[in-house]
Design brief:
The chain is an alpha/beta fold and about 625 residues long. The chain has 22 helices and 15 strands. The protein has 5 domains: about 100 residues; about 160 residues, Rossmann fold; about 70 residues, Helicase, Ruva Protein, domain 3 (Orthogonal Bundle), CATH 1.10.8; about 80 residues, Arc Repressor Mutant, subunit A; about 140 residues, Ribonuclease Inhibitor (Leucine-rich repeat, LRR (right-handed beta-alpha superhelix)), CATH 3.80.10.10. Strand 9, helix 22 and strand 10 form a beta-alpha-beta unit. GO terms for molecular function: ADP binding; ATP binding.
Length: about 625
């Protein structure tokens, strides 16, 4: 190395300035040999992971650009394998006191060029989200299209369609118990609206049991291509209302999963007299709440008729031509109470299972002593979960419950959390974990416990399925999702924290709820949203020394100061806005996965002390 530097200095003196840069670049191939080889290995591994994801989620007719991309990836991967095989042979020549500089130059240059090709392929793959697997749109649903043919649904759809065409009605609601298929029907109707151009714009927002006004405003605005700049909810409401009134087109706004009366003025929705050409459609489990909002037409959606429920079950279970199981299938379908969500999840869980599993499932359903329709649905989904034979699939499913309702869950988060918690057996690296998780996710989708997300590398959960998952997670694994400060206080008073393994805080204000407590078994802590509080002390982690996964989705200055006590941490996600965040990170000797988001992404020298680091993910945020 010293010889090469000396040669470079001599050349720089003797040649014209115009040639210094080109020659320096060539000398860089010599001096940067190890780095160029390392970079190529890492980028090829990333490309391999990306191709695994794309291949797994591209089905049916595929855009030519993707097919061409896949062919290019196969080509560069083959060249990469050949390159490293040759490089291993050539290395034997380097294990001498006089390494061959020409061979070193040639390999380094080739590695650099191949790396640039790989980076270009990775960049092109960023545009495949909508092409490879379109994000969930208003016309898609988790229940098979077969349900559209049922006569009990046709009359309801026709009734809703006539109401949508009635210019004298500006607000309607579709009401029915959870899991009956309200959202599915709405999305099917939207497809017809778009085909027949009944409205110019259709927008949808999920309200949920704990409405997030700012998110509802943003969702509606995005469908209308309105930009709400102000963070203040009141000002945003004014901007949204004015934008809707001035839009000048026929607009259908769908508010899905409404649990209680909404303040339309607070959201920014025009009053009845201002809705010229506008219509609002609600889906809700409670008709009384819709009446409070002055819904002008309420349409009740009932459960499937018995023969419809039985047909759907047999189709989903794949036993249409298996006479031996028909009687048992009929009994199980009847136990599902005509609820599509329960029918589909249980049927999918029994698909390709033996007779003993079918008989045991029927017996469990008959012995269920839960009362009430909502509890009935709960027990059916819980049974679908228990039908999963793979414990890793169960853990992956429960991990999804730690995220907010209707959240577009990145599969990569499941990979990183799962690695930190050691959920996957016989997995030696991130690539193997990623492949395993995508396989588990596919299994969960086939069981209808997970839905397609917005993009091929994301998933979603039906809100009722998530409720069941949260309950199972808290009971079986001591994984707790806390969605309000009141719930956190109640949980503290009951000493629920003493045995918990995971805590996910999803509410906006964390005062001193994490202070002065011992969490002797806590392995995962996720803090979501803009919930920083000056009440959090610098030693907040003192009682969490067994923590394996820490994920912060916003900047918490006080939470960055005492990271050094987390000596068992394996997965860490931070959001940082100053250059002093990493002074204690060198103490995290077991850290394997580090994800940093923010504006001041200077890497501190202490990162060099992280000898077990397997993945470093830097994501820059604009100021």
């Amino acid at each position: 190395m010293e010889i090469l530097i000396a040669v470079a200095s001599a050349i720089a003196v003797e040649i014209p300035k115009a040639l210094v840069a080109p020659i320096s670049r060539h000398i860089g191939y010599l001096t940067g040999y190890e780095l160029n080889i390392k970079n190529l290995k890492e980028e090829l591994e990333k490309l391999k992971d990306k191709k695994t994801v794309v291949d797994r989620h591209v089905a049916g007719p595929t855009a030519g650009s993707i097919i061409h991309w896949q062919e290019e990836v196969e080509g560069i991967s083959k060249k990469g394998n050949e390159f490293f095989q040759n490089e291993m042979n050539v290395n034997k020549c380097f294990n001498t006191n006089y390494p061959d500089p020409m061979l070193r130059y040639s390999l380094s240059k080739k590695a650099k060029e191949m790396t640039e090709t790989v980076l270009d392929l990775l960049k092109r793959a960023e545009n495949f989200g909508d092409i490879a697997h379109p994000g969930t749109n208003l016309g898609s649903s988790f229940i098979t299209e077969r349900i559209r043919d049922f006569r009990s649904r046709e009359s309801i759809k026709n009734e809703v369609w006539e109401v949508l065409k009635d210019d004298n009605l500006s607000m309607i609601s579709i009401c029915g118990t959870g899991g009956v298929g309200k959202t599915t029907m709405v999305k099917e109707l939207v497809q017809r609206v778009e085909r027949e151009n009944l409205f110019d714009v259709v927008g949808m927002a999920v309200v949920s049991q704990t409405p997030n006004i700012k998110k509802i405003q943003g969702d509606i605005a995005s469908w209308l291509n309105l930009k709400l700049d102000d963070e203040n909810e009141l000002k945003r409401a004014g901007e949204l209302r004015q934008g809707l009134i001035n839009h000048g087109e026929r607009i259908l706004i769908i508010l899905d999963d409404v649990w209680s009366e909404l303040d339309f003025e607070k959201i920014g929705l025009p009053s009845r007299g201002e809705r010229k050409g506008h219509k609002i459609m609600l889906t809700s489990r409670n008709m009384d709440e819709c009446n409070k909002m002055e819904s002008e037409k309420n349409i009740t959606m009932k459960v499937l008729e018995k023969d419809e429920a039985r047909d759907l079950f047999r189709e989903m279970a794949g036993i249409s031509n298996v006479q031996d199981l028909h009687h048992t299938a009929t009994e199980i379908a009847d136990e599902c109470g005509g609820l599509p969500l329960a029918i589909v999840t249980i049927a999918k869980g029994l698909k390709n299972k033996g007779r003993n599993k079918w008989d045991d499932t029927l017996q469990r359903l008959k012995n269920s002593n839960l009362q009430g329709v909502s509890r009935d649905v709960f027990s059916r989904i819980e049974l679908s979960y228990k039908l999963l034979e793979d414990e890793e699939a169960k853990s992956c499913f429960l991990l999804c419950s730690l995220f907010p309702e209707d959240f577009n869950v990145p599969v990569e988060d499941l990979v990183r959390y799962g690695m930190g918690l050691r959920l996957f057996k016989k997995v030696e690296n991130v690539h193997q974990a990623r492949t395993r998780v995508y396989t588990l996710v596919d299994e969960l989708k086939e069981s209808f416990l997970l839905l397609e997300g917005e993009g091929y590398d994301h998933v979603k959960m039906h809100d009722i399925v998530r409720d069941v998952a949260m309950s199972i997670a808290s009971t079986d694994k001591q994984w707790h999702t806390l969605q309000s400060e009141a719930k956190m206080k109640e949980w503290r008073e009951e000493d629920g924290y003493k045995h918990c393994i995971a805590i996910s805080l999803l509410y906006e204000k964390i005062s001193d709820q994490l202070n002065d407590l011992e969490y002797p078994k806590l392995e995962l802590l996720q803090i979501w949203g803009d919930c920083w509080s000056p009440g959090l002390p610098n030693n907040v982690y003192a009682g969490m020394k067994e923590l394996k996964v820490l994920a912060l989705s916003s900047s918490f200055p006080s939470l960055l100061q005492s990271l050094d006590v987390l000596r068992n941490l394996r997965t860490l996600r931070l959001v940082v806005f100053n250059e002093y965040w990493g002074r204690t990170i060198g103490a995290l000797v077991k850290l394997e996965i580090l994800e940093i988001r923010g504006r001041c992404l200077r890497l501190p020298g202490e990162i060099g002390q992280l000898k077990n680091l397997r993945l470093l993910d830097l994501r820059s945020r604009s100021p």
